[in-house]
Structures are given as C-alpha cells and as structure tokens.
Amino acid sequence: MRHTDRSREESGSPGDRAVVLDLGVPARGTAWRSPGEYWEGLGRAAAQLPAPAAVLDLDALRWNTQDMVRRAGGVPLRVASKSIRVRAVLEALLRVPGFAGVFAFTLPEALWLADRCSDVMVGYPSVDRRALARLLNDDALAARITLMIDDASQLDLIDSIVPAVRRLPLRVCLDADASWQAPLLGFIGTRRSPLHSLQDALMLGRHIAARPGFRLVGLMMYEGQVAGVGDNVPGAGPMNRVMRWVQRRSMAELTERRGAIVHGLREATDLEFVNGGGTGSIEATAADPAVTEITAGSGLFAGHLFDNYRAFSPAPAAAVALDVVRRPAPGIATALGGGWIASGPPGHSREPQVAWPPGLRLLPREGAGEVQTPLAGAAAAALRPGDRVWLRHAKSGELSERVNEFHVVNGGAVTATVPTYRGEGKAFL
Q1: What does the pLDDT read at residue 19?
Q2: Angle at 385 between CA 338 and CA 395, to 5 degrees
Q3: Which stretch of DSSP H or E encloses residue 326?
C-alpha cells in the first residue's frame, strides 16, 4: 500500500475512528509463536483499557491476510463480512491486492456496506421486503449488489415488490448445493440450496437467464464439509483420518459436478464469477479450474476453531481481555462475562478458549457464562480481583457482536481504535 496509508494508521490515536489500516505490508514479526511474549505484550498494551477489552494485533492480522492471499495462489478472495463485522477492517482488506469484493450475510448489511463498496454479494436469499424495495428503487445500489437465488419463488417475491417492467435488471447469483451424497455415509455438508444435481441447477439457471428483470451473473457453491471442518483436531486421530478421506472424496466429486454446472450455465449466460470455498478450503478450492473467486473471512481474526487444520496455521489476531472479579474458592477465579458461544453443534469446540495465562480451564458444569466465567486450574490460585485473563473465541463474529470497538495493537501499544458494526449502531443478523 501507499506510504501515506501506513503513516495514518500508525499515527492514529486510540479514539481516531477514521484511521486507515494498512494490511498490505509484511508483518514485522511473529511474536505469537512465543505465547508468553505475545499475550503479556498485549496485556501491557491493554492494561489501561476497561474490560472487556477486545484487541486486534496488527502484525497477526497482516500475517493472516497475506497468508490467505498466498494460499489462494492468484485466485481472488472475497471477504466474508460476518466473520469480521468491522467496517474499517473490511475496507482495509479490499485495498490489499488479492482481495476483491465482500460476501455479506444479509441484504440490510449489504445495503449499508454498498455505500462505500462497489461489489457486495448477499450470501443468502432475502425475503426482507423493506430492504428489497430500497434495492429495487435505487439503480446505484442495484449495480453494486448481487442477490442469492436458489428457487424461482424468490424471483416471484421480488417481482411482487417492483415488477420487472419498472426497474433495471437485478444482479443475481445462483446458489447450488456443494454437499457430498456419500455412499453409505449419506449427506455430508451444509443444508443450503435445494439444487444439487446438474439438471436442477441448469433448469433454474436457464430460467433466470431468460426471465425479464434479472441478470444471472454468478454461481456459488460452498463446500462447508471442507472449509469449515478441521482435519487436525488434537486427540482425534482416527476421526481426523476419516475427515481427510471424506474431504478428498467430496472435493473430487464437487470439482467434476461444479465444472459441469459452470459449462452448462455459460451456454445460457455470461457468468462474471464462480464463487466457492472458505478459510479451511482455500487451497483445494483454488485448485478447481472452474472457480474464479474464493470466499474467506474466519482465518483473518482466527478464532481457535481454525487452529485445527493441517494446511495452515493462522495467528491469533483477535482476543478479548476479561477482568477477574471474585474468588469463590481457593482454586477458582471468576471473570466477569465472557460466555459468547459460537454457532454450530453445541459442545466444547464452540466455547471460548482461555489463551492466557496458561493452566486455566472452564468448569465443565458451568462453562463460559453470560454474566461470569469461573476458571480453575493451576494458574487460578494466583489470580486476584483486578487481574486479567485473555480469551479467544471459536470463530470471530461472536466477539465483534459483543463489543463496540477493537483496539489495534501495533509495536506494543494501542495505536488505533476501530468500531465494530455494533459500535456504529448497527445490529444486523
């Protein structure tokens, strides 16, 4: 990036909300590889901040950003906003060569982001009539936003709000199912689109291409069974081997089926993009010749779920410091708040992970609570009210939704503060 961007980032004060982050320069070091140095350094930088103190380590975020670009091997990355939920970070990523466009969660979020981003795809079909009416009556927004479609009835709903004859054609992307219908094992993947077979995808794709008021510009197929499931989980050797086999077989099947769908759709329309992947599947998705872009976001802040992959080792860029406020027993220290649980199957993998100090664990019958998080273990006896513990969350979005701002730590000091969506007064799904 330009030197002026870096100068603004590093001279920003903690209260400067217009700060420009430069994620395009190399990380100055890899302090996170020495946990004591890393977490104690973050602790010193955040010592005067009130808890919960959410921080982003700039070098760690730079490392993750550029490692994802490296893993993509030249295939553009579309950033998944739900895993970030900090507009300053999204905009900084879009200035990095290798990133292009935003993958938004909902249409209201996309409308907000499109004020400052020229390419926003909505990841899920929208039936929000108010948001659709705004989109359909604003040609500038309609040129920047692409809607997701997997059923003709979704098109009917749009036409019922503003008929095709009264608007410009709307950009839409076809969402086809990327799950694997495995022999013996059955369905493996995520329950998303009803369009699994080549025939079903082409039938709806051709219908969209021929229907007035719509322009089919893209195809998305998300291989969640590869992108979102770790293959190197500690203590799960046999299951890791099964997962690697499943992922190899499912990617082979998907590559063939996705290629056939793309070929058929290109006979009906000029596709601008073919989207696939996620943080955990960047290499495998990039190897598919039909894919023109990869969506990824979770590996940037790097929640602890993403420690469990063989292909990459992200730096723990985002974390939150909580205050110890009480000692209910000699071997237990209790932190205020912290129970921000990630989505997915309930279990320990969705709980926050105690990152520092070492030797702390959640209580199995209480876990991380909405109002308090009791911690046991060897380190608990030394903790006193006013001390701090650092937590990493399983994904990333749950932390951003719970705090108003992230404090950016650079060179051992807080050099900027950036608001989350919540800090900007936005509460999107």
Answers
A1: 58
A2: 20
A3: strand 318-329
| Count: domains in the chain | 2
* Distance spanning both ends of the chain, measured CA to CA: 33
Using CB atoms within 10 A of its CB, is residue 135 exposed (0-12), middle (13-18) or buried (19+)? buried
Q: Do 147 and 171 touch, CB atoms closer than 8 A?
A: yes
Q: Is residue 306 part of a domain?
A: no
Residue 93 and residue 213 in one domain: yes
Distances (CA, A) of 191 to 175, 225, 307, 403: 12, 11, 25, 30
Domain interval for residue 244: 60-300
In a domain, 104, yes or no: yes
Rounded Cα distance, 99 and 65, in Å: 9
In a domain, 173, yes or no: yes
Same domain, 132 and 108: yes
Among 239, 270, 300, the domain boundary falls at 300
Boundary of a domain, candidates 250, 274, 300: 300
Q: How many beta carbons lie within 10 A of that of residue 185, not counting itself?
A: 11
CATH code of the domain covering residue 88: 3.20.20.10
Q: What is the pLDDT of residues 22-63, one digit of tens each?
A: 999 999 999 999 999 999 999 999 999 999 999 999 999 999
Co-location of 218 and 207 in the same domain: yes
pTM: 0.90
Strand partners, 373: 335
pLDDT of residue 308: 83
Question: Greatest CA span in the chain, whole angstroms?
Answer: 73
Give the separation between CA 84 and CA 205, rounded to whole angstroms: 31
- Cβ atoms of residues 244 and 256 within 8 Å: no
Return the CA Rg of the chain: 22
Phi (first) and psi of residue 134, to 5 degrees: -65, -45
Considering the domain architecture, whether residues 212 and 325 belong to the same structural domain is answered as: no
Averaged pLDDT, 195-203: 95
Which helix (H) or strand (E) segment holds residue 356: the answer is strand 353-356
77 and 40 within one domain: no
- Residue 152 has which token pair? 């003709």
d(CA 314, CA 306) in angstroms, rounded, equals: 7
